[in-house]
Amino acid sequence: MTNDSIQAPAGRATAPASVLTRAPGRWLAGWDAENTTQWEGEGRPIARRNLAWSIACEFLGFVIWQLWSVVVVFLPAAGFHYSSSELFWLISMPSLVGATLRIPYTFMVAKFGGRNWTIISVLLLLLPATGLALCVGNPQTSFGTMLAVAALAGVGGGNFASSMANITFFFPAREKGWALGLNAAGGNLGAAVAQLAVPLVVTGLAAGAVNLPLAGWMWVPLILLAAVGAWKFMDNITAAKSDVAGSLAALREPHLWILALLYIGTFGSFIGFSSVFPKLLVDTFGAGTGFKLGYATLSLAFLGALVGSLARPYGGRLADRWGGARVTVACFALLALVTLVQVWTLPLHSFPLFLGLFLVLFAAAGAGNGSTYRMIPVVFALRSGTHDGGSGVSAGRKSAAALGLISAIGAYGGFLVPQLLNASKTSTGGYAGAFYGFVACYLLLMGLTWFAYLRRSSNTGLRGV
């Protein structure tokens, strides 16, 4: 039988174990990353090619997801007269929708194929990109319309879940950490690039004026290029299956909810402060804060997302050496301390101090992302030896499901952080109240981490995770 005679879905091709065959539509049958012969032969190049295009598409997902974080600071100059509270809603709505979409997106790879869903999901980014370009070009656009278009940007946040799920199928267990780390870091960098590139384009190319529609149009060619690349170079795997039973078993595991709270504190802080940092800088120091680069003014807000993204893999590396719980406790302690110092020093109105403290906060949040994420498979592996919940589902399956579920729950922090700042600004006229609230949350999460995973009297078998 030739490859051409094998039919893809609706009747996905099957093949003997370790015999890799190809079907129309770039379907791979017989894929087994754990088979050394296959992996060292044609398996590794295939996996790396799919990883490269996955990173490119996920990167654009994060760009679109965080686009409104920088666009809102230009709305007043473009003729829009929205209240501060309305601007906060435009910032936080993409995170709310993106976090919610991460749950169904996790199952789309198995339903449609990793390549196919990557093409679909990256093309969906055209909707928020073009919608933004059309809306911000007309100052008469109603707030309700703007909020709906901002909500569309949430599809970029959902891309993370399907991208991570897809790459999991391509790599053997011994290389999953490396591959998933690259995939996650490549996506996270999209937030920093959006906040760096948009000011350069919307003011630089407009010779000092504000041509805000370019903030959306500039990404359209890259989205189309990524879709073409995914179509030509990515693959579907017939063996990729959704694990609904694993997800249900993971949801019944109490430690999933503990880890989800910790991830809200770490990843939620990263994505939440990344989205709101440009507005905080403008509110605190004025629209012209930063430095001139030609006609454009860079606020340096992009440095926060950049530092947080780069710190994430180091958090995982430290967790490998010292234990995820210890590193997570240290990160929460640093987050609480830096946030407290930040609110105490706000009256000094020092831009270098404000920026420096926030960069430390971003570094702590980014490292906490890595350490908390590293804890998940360790906790589920240890729990399998002491308590399986009677589900009959292996620790590996529950752990894999938990990674996706926790990443979705943690992303809600991207909505909570701006809204807490919004509430503080609305009720008191400043941000000090929200910062004190963040300090309390970090201290509570630090205590929860210690109580669940580090206290000596713990009888859960998880001490020292």
Structural account:
The protein is mostly helical. It has two domains: 36-242, MFS general substrate transporter like domains (Growth Hormone, Chain: A), CATH 1.20.1250; 243-465, MFS general substrate transporter like domains (Growth Hormone, Chain: A, Up-down Bundle). It is 72% helix and 3% strand. It has 18 helices and five strands. The strands form two sheets. A three-stranded mixed sheet has the order 1-2-3. A two-stranded antiparallel sheet has the order 4-5. Helix 3 packs antiparallel against helix 4 and helix 5 runs antiparallel to helix 6. It is globular.
Oligomeric nature of the chains = single chain
Strand order of the largest sheet: 1-2-3
* Contiguous helical run count: 18
Poorly predicted runs of 5 or more residues: 1-16
Q: CATH topology of the largest domain, which one?
A: Growth Hormone, Chain: A
What is the 3D shape? globular
Number of domains: 2
Number of strands: 5
Strand content: under 5%
CATH superfamily of the largest domain: MFS general substrate transporter like domains
Amino-to-carboxy terminus distance? 51 Å
Q: How does CATH name the architecture of the largest domain?
A: Up-down Bundle
